[in-house]
Amino acid sequence: MAACVTASSNLAAQQTFATPTTHRYVRYMTELLQPDAEGIARAAQLLRDGKLVSFGTETVYGLGGDATNDRAVAAIFAAKERPSFNPLICHYPNADAAYRTVVANERAHRLAEAFWPGPLTLVLRRTVDCPVSLLAGAGLDTLAVRVPAHDIARALLRQIDRPVAAPSANRSGRISPTTAQHVLAELSGRIAAVLDCGPCSVGVESTVLDLSGKDAVLLRPGGVTLEAIEATIGAVAHHDTPGVLRSPGLLASHYAPRTAVLLNVSEVRPDEALLAFGAALPGAGSTFNLSEASDLTEAAARLFAGLRALDAAGQRRIAVMPIPERGLGRAINDRLRRAAAPR
Ligand code: TXA
Ligand code: MG
Predict the structure, then answer these.
(1) What is the DSSP string of 100-168?
(2) What is the pLDDT of residues 199-220, one digit of tens each?
(3) Which atom of ligand 1 is least distant from the CA of 91?
């Protein structure tokens, strides 16, 4: 059997609990899956069911979740304990699968041809009907995509047949894992399974290159060198090039509602749109409830869709009910504070 732990059923082992810092996530008997047909099939099934599975790539181990499933993507942020929503990289078995979610351009085609599968991530515009969760892209109009050069990872990606969002499988602020044992040390109990893909051969993260604008911009140096990229598409700007602002959280293209945003409201007027959490305040012109059950994972999953829906509602402003500053609530509030900041 592929699973090495004694849990007879992953589901049976789940329970919600709170750590002393009141960070909530689902508790698992994390399965260690072998890189054989059975292990890959189990990993694919768990991912399709919305569970989190770590898998090895040639760079580092990723913390994978179904990128088309808002709840799975929110669970990635919860497991990593990230205080803010960074956009995540989506993984595909081949370039054609990636191009169903992003719009490829001439430079992308040339680079994909030269370096995929391999440690290069391309940031491109989302397709109009892109099925990837808005949360995976942190609300941006662009998406980071890559095809990893690892046979087991690609077999898994082929089998699940959906984009898989996967940041490095470490907790926030820690070192990226390059073996299944590192992942277990970081995330055991927080994720459904780790697919043991052996030690990573490259050991540093993929190079991230933004091809969504006029200039190609290097956002993160990594496994494919700048020299190799420039030999393929010509000059590349650096993220510290004067006038080019690329820190993801500060990106000018970061989705910000056009409607003014007011935080921590305790009452709401008929000319306001309400972003609710828990029992909705009465009296708003329109309401989008992030989570009637006051569940922060559900709220994170619905955040960007909610902001877009209320922005389109045409009210005077968006009034936001208080969100607790714990667990994923910190990342939600970080994003809302930016949406509310004077522009
Ligand atoms: O090697 C890797 O890339 C690993 C393996 C697992 O594939 N993944 C990884 O993911 O390092 P992560 O989430 O730790 O790093 C994602 C990087 C971040 O620097 C993020 O800011 C950038 O990609 N990024 C993702 N989407 C972006 C976007 N739409 N625009 C700009 N930057 C983006
Ligand atoms: Mg990382």
Answers:
(1) TTB---HHHHHHHHHH-SSSEEEEEEBPTT--S-TTTTTT-SEEEEE--S-HHHHHHHHHH-S-EE--B
(2) 999 888 999 999 999 999 999 8
(3) 7
